[in-house]
Amino acid sequence: MTSLRPFHATDIFKFNPTNLDPLTETYDLNFYFSYLARWPHLFNVAEGLDGTIDGYIMGKLESSPSYYVNSEHYLPFHAHITALTVAPHARRLGLARTLSSTLENSGDEYDAWFVDLFVRKSNKVGQALYKGLGYKVFRVVKEYYVDDLSDDTKDGEDAWDMRKRLKRDVSGIHARDDGENYVVRPEDVW
Amino acid sequence: MADQLRASQDAPIWNAIEANNFKQALKLVDKRLAKRHTEYLEALKIYIRSRSPQVPEKNAVLLHLEELPERKPPVADIEAIELYDEALEEVLPKSGETWERIIGPLRWQCVKAQPKNEDLSLKCFQACLSKGALDHARQIANSLEKNFPKNHSYIFWNITMMYLFSTSQNCPENQKRIWGGLALGQIGKLAGVTKEAQDQKQLPIRSVQTPQELLLLDRITAAYGKPEVRLEYLQSTQLGPESIVAKGEWQLWRTKLQLMETAQKWQELFDTTAALLKRARTKDDSSQLSESQLSDWIVWEASIRSAVELGSHQYKSQVQAEIEAHLDPASGVDKSWRRNASLAEVKLLFDSSTAFSRLQLSSEEGNGTSKRVAAIVKYLRGYGKASTAYNDLRPFVERLSPTERKQLLESLKNNNVFLDVQKLGDGKYPAKQDHSTAGQITQVINAYKLRYLLSCALPEYGRTQSPAKGLVEGNCNSCSWPCGLVCKHCLEDIAREAIQSYRIAMDDDGKISQTLLKTDQHPADDLSILAAMCFIKLSLMSAEKETEPLARASATYALQATVLLESAWLHSKHNFQMSLLLIRLYKYLGCGSLAMRAYHRLSLKQIQLDTLTYTIFDRFSSLDVRASNQTSAISSKERTPLGHLQEQQDLYLSSYEKITKNSWLSFKHGSYNSIFEMREVSEKLSNSIAAAMSVIESRKISRLTEPGTPLTEISHGFDLLPPNMEFPESTFSDNLDYESFPNFETSIGPRFEQLSRYIPSLSAYRCRLNLAAEKLMLIIDPSADVAQEKELLHLWLKQYLDSQKQSEPARAKPEGMTRSEELAAATYHAVALILRASREQDQWAETDFQTKLNKYNTDLLESLEEHLALIKALKEPVPAFGNTLHALYTAHEVGRTILHFCKYVSKQGKGFVEKQKEATAKIEELARKLLQLVVENCGVVKKGLDEGGWIDKVLECTLPEAQEGGDDRAAMGALRELLDENFLEEWAGEVVESWREAVVGLSYLKTPPKA
Ligand SMILES: CC(C)(COP(=O)(O)OP(=O)(O)OC[C@H]1O[C@@H](n2cnc3c(N)ncnc32)[C@H](O)[C@@H]1OP(=O)(O)O)[C@@H](O)C(=O)NCCC(=O)NCCS
């Protein structure tokens, strides 16, 4: 069954079904709690029958810091998917699609320009999901990740910065069709 | 902070402080003070003195600080107060209570003197919040609200603080209702304003305006108000989930439905949910299903519940029609929501079959497939390709009647559940083509899990619930063979078929693997896990006779489970459930280093160190104190158990600060609900049972691996725990994750994690005993001769023993103990009583004193005798499995502690020593015997493992040669077919190596020389 609810702080004791997966990072408490403090409505869980965590999404709404306003990499007010994960036992049920659409709705409600996210270059499943939802590669961030889970011999992996227009961007000024060709460095993204 | 305070004229003073030249700094500050006395300079002087390393100086600082709150007029200079704050931190780090007594009032008085200074108030509010001085934070929030009436947030800060304080431990009992009531009254007023407001988009400052404020309203009303008022708020158009203020906050809907259910407002609930479900499938102007979330499972559940309660067919048909509308292919409903409708169909049938059609059903049962079985099969056909199908259906399968269960089991066994299974081969197990896609494999797995539920899990649970508790052996309902509590044949059957099926699934030339990411789990994994679970159950049901370990059936099954999981792991390296099972199995087998290897595969970090370290480190000090992990990618410190435990303890040390920092952030962003949730986390972490385990294990390990280190109370993390956790009234917070273990058991009975415990689990009872034993050891520790500390410990001992007498039986329920631990506990209890008697000088001369003492000594001797017998019973300890190692380590600790005890009592008051002398001699003798026996056993284990041929023995034990006339249903044959010979041998070699490594740890178990 599918049931959504807000992420509670105490869920950190229960999120192992998703977080034991290597593609899902387990962060410092600070990280989760600062999201709960700032964007509690963008942090949601898909719950299983007996209350287990089947998946969750962590999101935020923000713009780049104002001192970057003249930078070519400046990002206007937008929604960002910080983490989206579904436990292995609950995959391919449409939960990721459902969770990400809740964030898109919030983005529209708060008049954001687009939703964006980073996904590993090797994470074909993640990319398939986002492409299916209408996201496109906006730029490639060279060696954004410090490790490469698909190849132990490498110690860095590129990220795709993917983006989907929201209602506010009527004419698509914040979208790109050939984003694969735009390569930036990790220090260019904030 | 101190840096910012530095005015240019103070620069020389600060330079001296930074150079640690406190003498010079004091001289300079005195010079300036002589010219002009200021609050700041006085505080600076105290701060400098607090930095001095001398204890008397620190004590003097504390005395000075203690006087400050009484000062009239109060200290007004905030910079001075901040210096005092830092001085206190220097002399008494993390001193919550003292801070609250000294700095809290100073900060509040300072705010009170300058209430219009907003920055000052905010700074002090933040400081009080971060130190847990909630009453002062509350007072400051109140002042902020009064002095900045145009600020909407401060109104809610004040309410939040009143409520937070009312629910905190610091709040005096008689004030709880007062502050709670005030919070309720105030927020109720604000809610009233919102409700009455004409324009919901332009609300007055003093009103409820945001979703988080609504959640706060609900939280406070739930705690201090009436349920009907809570529901009233949620039902109003201005404060409910559909209000402008709510901005679609879904939690409000969840609460509202739940409250309506509790209030049994069935008609309203039915109408509400019917409307929600309809909206969920209704397209908006741009042809989108923008409200699809309204068909959340909780909405379906509430709808069905209300329909059933209302009892008339009309409601049931309406829900059925809604289900059909959702399932209509043209509805456009996404699959995640569509699945809810399908499951709702099953639920409606099951829930209503009792309410609407009891008669109709019973007549159906007699002829043909029951409707309920048909519904389950239908769902399985629709969703069998997803592994959640089993979880979804389990509660319904459990409700089937015996006849229905049989029907379902037959269909599952005949493989006619899935439409495309008609073309099956020999009917024994699905033909190869059925495993060709991940979805089909999952279908097969779901069928096996259901078969397991019907033929193993449910009957087992039933038998444990029956009054006879399986004592009467009967014939199994599923296979008709004789069985006890657990049916061996059914488990063997499922295990065999699951392995065969697994082999077919994996035999696809890597076709499926190629479609997976390297980090993905293999879809067939659950087949091997299910089989391993059967083996584990079989291993646990096999009585351990007193034969050598590798001749026991329990060992055979455990090794089978282990090798099966290790071989499956090769194809699915990120399957954490396999690793969790492997840790458990290797601990049972006495392979500490392999358990550690499996643990490393989980790559735990951060909060997972609280929830999952128990899987390996509970009792690790009596398994392999030096188990190293061979992975080269990690540093040598991380490879040791102590390194791991230290890392875990760092988590607790740093968490409080992180949480308070974010509570402040929540205030700033008006996320009131998060504040309460974070506090809950903070409480759970500070009382965590895993933290206690970590402290206990690291102390035990380092006592062996770093002998001679004085066991002062605070080393190895004692200061990590709240004081007096060993007292019966203390409560531990169990944050342990039991749920990440695979579980295909019934949803009503215990989970597999519980059923598969080879040894009793971590318990609060055991933690308390262990912590008390640690303190007892401090008293008698010969290396730590700190007279003052020992006096305090004796005082503690008296209180501790008194508390034991008064404790409620429920709390003192002996749980989670092995026999060795029970004996150790009995020994330590007698030791504690004798130690107390050694201090009761006034009673030594009394006539019954000797009788009392004799009784304690007899108890002590008895427990030691029993311990001796326990170790003697380890007749054939090679290879040493987990329980043998545990017994040896525990006995050694008892023996060594007793020797320390004997030495200690012999140095007590003369009058006492006289009375105790004779007994002490006997006790010492027994303790030495015990230690000697432990050492001898360790020798036997070592010698035994030094011999050759162990790899063959492991192989023989894992896959014994089939005996003539043996059971052809046994799963072993299937396992043999699955495993590659080279792999098998390599793995057996690892097992033997791990046993040998554990022997190295045993070399720590020595007998101390006679004094
Ligand atoms: C990526 C992930 C979140 C997908 O979760 P999910 O709930 O299984 O995804 P959904 O069921 O919602 O799938 C939506 C669509 O994504 C695509 N998709 C999802 N999994 C796929 C897979 N294994 N192969 C191909 N496409 C896939 C499909 O188009 C799918 O639609 P469909 O099932 O109707 O064909 C999940 O695999 C996961 O948690 N991975 C680890 C963490 C991660 O990588 N997160 C993303 C990076 S931020």
UniProtKB/TrEMBL annotation, chain A:
Task: Report the Gene3D superfamilies cross-referenced here.
Answer: 3.40.630.30
Question: Which residues belong to any copy of the N-acetyltransferase domain?
Answer: 2-167
Q: Which GO molecular function entries does the Swiss-Prot or TrEMBL record give?
A: protein-N-terminal amino-acid acetyltransferase activity
Is GTP-binding found in the keyword set? no
Output the InterPro entries linked to this UniProt entry. Answer: Acyl_CoA_acyltransferase, GNAT_dom, NatB_acetyltransferase_subunit
What's the domain of life for this entry?
Answer: Eukaryota
Mind listing the UniProt keywords for this protein, alphabetically? Answer: Acyltransferase, Transferase
List, alphabetically, the GO terms of the cellular component aspect.
NatB complex
This chain belongs to the protein called: Acyl-CoA N-acyltransferase
TrEMBL record, chain B:
For this record, the Gene Ontology CC terms, alphabetical, are: NatB complex
The family database entries (InterPro entries) matched by this protein are listed as:
NAA25_NatB_aux_su (IPR019183)
Q: Please, which domain of life does this record's source organism belong to?
A: Eukaryota
Q: Enumerate the Pfam families for this protein.
A: NatB_MDM20
Family recorded in the similarity comment? Belongs to the MDM20/NAA25 family.
Protein name according to UniProt: Uncharacterized protein
